[in-house]
């Protein structure tokens, strides 16, 4: 059994921040459960580009608001508490945040926690779990 709190993750190597977002990585590949689980906060008035070519991501919005743009189709979707989106087709996408958002995210395959987005917003392919 694994029990963790976001308070104990804050300020550790599981607490990863970039210019416009912060990700508290609660479950990672090294935990050996086949997925990773994150609490992500996106700053108000920010625009973030992502493209998870090697991962499927499910996102559940629990606070805030914004817009999700699917670059593959041009479709836009409002984001608000209770909204879930699943990037099951590895879609290039943009998140425009109008009110600070807090989201719960699941990645498959799991991330290790050391990934950095490249210039296209992509994480590298998952490494085998050791």
UniProtKB/TrEMBL annotation:
<comment type="function">
    <text>Catalyzes the circularization of gamma-N-acetyl-alpha,gamma-diaminobutyric acid (ADABA) to ectoine (1,4,5,6-tetrahydro-2-methyl-4-pyrimidine carboxylic acid), which is an excellent osmoprotectant.</text>
</comment>
<dbReference type="InterPro" id="IPR011051">
    <property type="entry name" value="RmlC_Cupin_sf"/>
</dbReference>
<dbReference type="InterPro" id="IPR010462">
    <property type="entry name" value="Ectoine_synth"/>
</dbReference>
<dbReference type="GO" id="GO:0033990">
    <property type="term" value="F:ectoine synthase activity"/>
</dbReference>
<comment type="pathway">
    <text>Amine and polyamine biosynthesis; ectoine biosynthesis; L-ectoine from L-aspartate 4-semialdehyde: step 3/3.</text>
</comment>
<comment type="similarity">
    <text>Belongs to the ectoine synthase family.</text>
</comment>
<keyword id="KW-0456">Lyase</keyword>
<dbReference type="GO" id="GO:0019491">
    <property type="term" value="P:ectoine biosynthetic process"/>
</dbReference>
<dbReference type="Pfam" id="PF06339">
    <property type="entry name" value="Ectoine_synth"/>
</dbReference>
<dbReference type="InterPro" id="IPR014710">
    <property type="entry name" value="RmlC-like_jellyroll"/>
</dbReference>
<protein>
    <recommendedName>
        <fullName>L-ectoine synthase</fullName>
        <ecNumber>4.2.1.108</ecNumber>
    </recommendedName>
</protein>
């Amino acid at each position: 059994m694994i029990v963790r709190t976001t308070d104990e993750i804050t300020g550790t190597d599981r607490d990863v921040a970039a210019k416009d977002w912060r990700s508290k990585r609660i479950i990672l590949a090294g935990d050996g459960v086949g997925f990773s689980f994150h609490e992500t906060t996106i700053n108000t008035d920010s625009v973030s580009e992502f493209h998870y070519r090697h991962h499927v991501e499910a996102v559940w919005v629990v606070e805030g608001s914004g817009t999700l743009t699917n670059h593959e189709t041009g479709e836009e979707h409002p984001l608000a508490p209770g909204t879930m989106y699943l990037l099951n087709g590895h879609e290039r996408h943009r998140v425009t945040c109008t009110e600070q958002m807090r989201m719960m995210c699941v990645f498959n395959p799991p991330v290790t926690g050391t990934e950095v987005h490249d210039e296209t917003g992509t994480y590298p392919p998952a490494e085998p779990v050791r």
